[in-house]
Amino acid sequence: MSNVINVLLVDDHDIVRIGVRSFLCSFDDIEVVGEAANGQEAVDMTAELSPDIILMDMLMPVMDGIQAIREIRDRKLPGRIIALTSFATDDKLFPAIKAGAMGYLLKDSTPEELLDAIRRVHRGEPSLAPDIARKVLSELSQPGEGADTPTPDPLTPRELDTLRLVAKGKSNKIIAEDMFVSEATVRTHMTSILSKLHLANRVEATLYALREGIASL
To answer: 20 to 30 A Cα–Cα from 155, which one of 9, 36, 37, 142?
Structure first.
């Protein structure tokens, strides 16, 4: 069924995978289609299974989560990625977002938070818990090596409206409805926003909006 969200679980701890699988399998709209114990297996299984969502542990043998996310994105494999970690202070947090993860979740999150993150990311909406967002914003406030500065060309009023709605976790469809424009127009605005601000994806756009006060947690 097209309404079912196919999920690939990636974690080197059997007990974690067993627990997450057991929980997710109790919902009719989610199916766990595979399990991987390291990043290399994750890449291979993503290519084989074409999952909708990949729950990706960050610290694993053979290939860690960051490398796996980068390889999946470089190979343009399907699947939206939610990064999982045990610590909000994990130094892989921001690199995971830079690599292309659409969600970031702590392993001590509630089952309901995990379920919500899967459904949100499947809809194309970033999912970043407030405590994690604050941590990333703190890191973003520090000067980085080789950081790109935004273009002098300012965002238009419509681009700012789009950015505010993106920061609220809205999908392109909902943004289009709220702004009374087509989804194609929203995509055009997003392309322009990312280009002007030298950002890689919607999660970075959300964090930029939070940092600059365009939106709030």
So the answer is: 142
